[in-house]
Amino acid sequence: MKKITFILWITLLIISCTDHSTMVEVEGDSSSSALKLSSSTTAFSSSVIGLSSSDNFSSESLQSSSSVKFSSSAILSSSSSVISSSSSQYSSSSITQSSSSIIIVSSSSQCTNTYGTNTVTDCRDGQSYKTVMIGTQTWMAQNLNYTVDSSWCYNNSADSCAKYGRLYQWASAMNTDSDYNSKTWGGSDVNHQGICPDDWHLPSNDEWLTLYDYVEANNSSEGVGTSLKSSSGWASDGNGSDLFSLSALPGGYRSDNGSFSFASNIAYFWSATEDYSKNANNWYLYYSGNDFYDGSNGNKYYGFSIRCLKN
Q1: Are 79 and 222 within one domain?
Q2: pLDDT tens for residues 140-151?
């Protein structure tokens, strides 16, 4: 009789979830407020759910030819039988029992970057980058080389990506719709992650200015560009002192017609600051110049390099 009552109870719970397309409320004993279940797409397989003789759930207790599918936010309660998840599929082994509660253990987790001494490894693709602290800012000391649409290796050469990182259109760098290469985006440039790893972001124009001002005040009056350029790799004796270990390399750029130009001569870097519909702020270094230049009105369709900044 106890088993029949429990089966009827769980059947009523299933019906209440599947018959409503908006929200179901269940009173939970462990708190005085209602627990809400979203059941807009809740579905169960057509096979029979069985219970073991001890009235507990086990891996063998769910007799199903496919996984049980739940759709809702993960809601856990130590004393209320609430089933939910995040639009994921779970097999019977994903369900455990705790103090009469049915708990769905989420299998989705965001990857975590790993850090070493002055390095960060992007957990998305396993690539490692040198990092450097300049004043109060922590920068990647190498250009980003994360593959996304509308990004390229210089001259489509993998060797160039290994040396210079990739060249990105502005909308791609910002991780926004490509339409924003030709129309106003209008979003905030403050800590905008774009395609940088978690906890890093595309620097705003103000943050590039912060770098400029710090270097200018602490480089013994040599040119800011000279202090930021790498000590090798620049054409025509254009190497810098790399005084602050930013190691800026001349990755050149890709134009809107698909041609590549000025590797070993110029380094262009996007900022997250938009100028207007078809242009965005950028900064650049030139082989024969000793300054770091604010290149406003950069064509968003051009492919420039990215340096990520720590949040």
Answers
A1: no
A2: 999 999 999 999
Separation CA 191–CA 177 (nearest Å): 18
Domain presence at residue 124: yes
Q: Are 148 and 253 members of one domain?
A: yes
Give the separation between CA 133 and CA 310, rounded to whole angstroms.
10
Give the structural domain span for 96: 2-104
One domain, residues 135 and 281: yes
Is there a domain that residue 125 lies in?
Answer: yes
Partners of 131 in beta bridges = 140
CA gap 248, 231 in Å, rounded? 9
How confident is the model over 92-130, as pLDDT tens digits?
A: 333 333 333 333 333 334 899 999 999 999 999 999 999
Are 287 and 235 within 8 A, CB to CB? yes
Q: How far apart are CA 77 and CA 294, in angstroms?
A: 55
Question: pLDDT digits over 229-287, tens only?
Answer: 999 999 999 999 999 999 999 999 999 999 999 999 999 999 999 999 999 999 999 99
Q: Are 208 and 283 in contact (CB under 8 A)?
A: yes
**309 burial class (0-12, 13-18, 19+ CB within 10 angstroms)?**
buried
